[in-house]
């Protein structure tokens, strides 16, 4: 995966270091809409919702000035259902290289025109949800024809050469046998791949948890194969330590020590803050520090290991070391790649 430039790397690292010390969030996820084009079996969103209370694009600037994250996720629901998405991204970026901005989408509405528009607005990374390496993806997302669309648009946009597309595969009991096949599909399409872990906390259903011995064996076998497929391009973006922790999360039935509300948080589509997308206590922007005191300081939840948490559970030195090695360039512009 393409490394972030020398100048942008220094700015991201600098802001992240200051935020860590000051107790501000490292990552903020803006859920810009609750509506979605899919009805995914492992998700608590789905279908159209009332959009009348959504923040308007210019209102995101106030959140950026107060929170000053070094990484932002723009998500939903399905964020591309908003026609003003590029304007929202521009307000989040504010014309600067920081924050590093990730668009999390199912890509059902992606076209080459929108991809280029969103890149120009400031999206640094496009995260594309993919649950199966074939048409079973359509059934899981309840969206006929979605896999065919992805199989055409993802490799076509990857050939533009920007190296900014990452497939996101949430590991469930339904697709645990496809872990290595998903890696093969990412390589076939010429894009990167990130694994995350299913949490029953989102839907209240344990149907897609990995709990039986044969499921855990399939998980370990798949991740062992993935480790053997790594190469110097970092096309599998999870670090080895993250995948090892994913194994432990499923084997032990949870992971304690979550810092939701402090190291990362969610801004809902209506502007209220939540510690994470699966903890529904709400706070106004002005009460962010209260959220850290009242929620984070007493949080005992260990029921998820989503991608944001998997990185921010680490110590600052480990987080910095892994990301500098894999994604940031500390060389001058003439040597950066």
Characterise this structure:
By secondary structure, this protein is α/β, with parallel strands linked by helices. It has one domain (6-326): Aldolase class I (TIM Barrel, Alpha-Beta Barrel). The protein is built from twelve helices and eight strands. It has an eight-stranded mixed beta sheet. Helix 2 links the parallel strand 1 (27-31) and strand 2. The chain is globular.
Q: What is the compact description of this entry?
A:
This protein has 337 residues and is an alpha/beta fold. It has helices at residues 6-22, 60-67, 85-93, 112-121, 136-141, 146-158, 179-189, 213-229, 240-252, 288-294, 307-312, 316-326; strands at residues 27-31, 71-75, 100-105, 125-129, 165-171, 192-197, 264-267, 273-274. It is globular and about 45 Å long.
> What's the mean pLDDT score?
91
Unreliable parts: 330-337
C-alpha termini separation? 10 Å
Percent helix among the residues? 25-40%
User: Number of helical runs?
Assistant: 12
- Which architecture per CATH? Alpha-Beta Barrel
> Can you write the helix and strand succession as a string?
HEHEHEHEHHEHEHHEEHHH
Number of strands: 8
Strand content: 5-15%
**Shape summary:** globular
Radius of gyration: 19 Å
The domain tally reads: 1
Briefly note the structural class of the backbone.
Answer: alpha/beta
Q: Give the CATH class.
A: Alpha Beta
Query: For this structure, what is the CATH homologous superfamily?
Result: Aldolase class I
CATH third-tier fold name:
TIM Barrel
Biggest sheet descriptor:
8 strands, mixed
Order of strands across the biggest sheet?
Answer: 6-5-4-3-2-1-7-8
């Amino acid at each position: 995966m393409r490394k972030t430039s020398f100048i942008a790397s220094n700015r991201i690292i600098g802001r992240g270091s200051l935020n860590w010390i000051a107790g501000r969030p490292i990552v903020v996820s803006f859920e810009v809409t609750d509506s979605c084009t899919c009805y995914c079996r492992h998700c608590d969103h789905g279908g159209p919702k009332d959009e009348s209370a959504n923040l308007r694009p210019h209102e995101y600037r106030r959140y950026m000035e107060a929170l000053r994250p070094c990484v932002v996720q723009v998500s939903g629901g399905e964020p591309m259902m908003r026609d003003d998405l590029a304007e929202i991204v521009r307000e989040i970026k504010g014309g600067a290289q920081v924050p590093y901005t990730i668009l999390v989408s199912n890509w059902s509405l992606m076209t080459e025109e929108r991809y280029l528009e969103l890149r120009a607005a400031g999206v640094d990374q496009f995260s594309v949800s993919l649950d199966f390496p074939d048409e079973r993806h359509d059934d899981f997302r309840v969206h006929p024809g979605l896999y065919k669309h992805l199989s055409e648009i993802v490799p076509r946009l990857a050939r533009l050469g920007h190296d900014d597309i990452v497939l996101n595969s949430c590991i469930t009991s339904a697709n645990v046998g496809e872990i290595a096949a998903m890696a093969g599909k990412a390589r076939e399409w010429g894009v990167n791949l990130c694994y995350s872990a299913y949490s029953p906390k989102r839907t209240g259903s344990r149907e897609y948890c990995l709990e039986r011995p044969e499921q855990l064996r399939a998980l370990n076998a798949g991740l062992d194969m993935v480790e053997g497929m790594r190469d110097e391009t970092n096309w599998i973006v999870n670090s080895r330590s993250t995948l090892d922790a994913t194994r432990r999360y499923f084997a032990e039935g949870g992971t304690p020590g979550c810092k939701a509300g402090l190291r990362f948080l969610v801004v809902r589509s209506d502007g209220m803050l939540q510690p994470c997308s699966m903890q529904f206590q709400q706070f106004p922007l002005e009460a962010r520090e209260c959220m850290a005191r009242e929620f984070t300081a007493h949080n005992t939840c260990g029921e998820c290991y989503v991608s944001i948490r998997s990185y921010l559970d680490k110590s600052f030195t480990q987080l910095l070391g892994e990301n500098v090695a894999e994604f940031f360039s500390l060389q001058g512009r003439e040597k950066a790649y």
